[in-house]
Specification:
This protein has 274 residues and is mainly beta. 7% of the residues lie in helices and 32% in strands. The chain is built from 3 helices and 16 strands. The longest helix has 10 residues. It starts with 27 loop residues before the first strand and ends in a 31-residue tail after the last helix.
Length: 274
Amino acid sequence: MYRFLASVLSVVALCGFSPVRPAEEGPVLLSVIDRDDGQELDLHPHRGQQWVAGTPGHRYSVRMQNRSGERVLVVLSVDGVNAITGQTASPSQSGYVLEPWQSSEITGWRKSNAEVAQFVFTASSDSYASRTGRPANVGVIGIAVFNEARRPVYDVRPLPAPRPMPRPMPQYEDRAEASANARAAEAPAAPSAMARSESRQRLGTGHGEREWSSSSLTSFERASRTPVQVSELRYDSRQRLVAMGILPRGYRRVDNTPQAFPSGFVPDPPARGH
């Protein structure tokens, strides 16, 4: 089920430093949410790329936040596979349409207008891409964003940022590719490609249990063939990120949010005057 939430940044203690999300160009903010602990995964820059640490077995969602006053089309690629059609991803394919200022959480591979198969962090060899013979791009989540062609002059004013509203139903572009599930399993890659992929990537995205996720088709005319934004997030296990030098050894997340039930029993207070 899609949840339209304001983006909230997690606080992480790392050697006394709290990382801040770097400025991201383009109308859409991309982030990953661990659905099992409810936290947004922190971004860790490394050699020009942004990495997040996934937890094997945890479900996750991809949050896409439209920060503009106009509709945009977002083509979502997970492990090099289009999350709507199952095809090897290309910017020219079907994507999700976000209304002005809308934030949407994509929770899985779309199976119909009513269901998705959950995104789950799993072993690279068990990822959907690897199981369909396409392991080369396991470990990357990407979006290609398109502006909408100008409508008649009376309908072109960008909308101001709205007050909190009921969550709208997600929509995706009505293109022929949206019904192309039969073409999802393409020709298997050579075994050597599979071996190379697994040697450098431990974590992939599995084809998890099905869950309800309502959506609808809509029309969208792209302003150009070229996306106005292409963004990527790399991911792997925490252990792998430590081995690669992206995270320091002994790294752990610390949530400083006050808790009503922090556990434990009631200790005696310190003596007065201390």
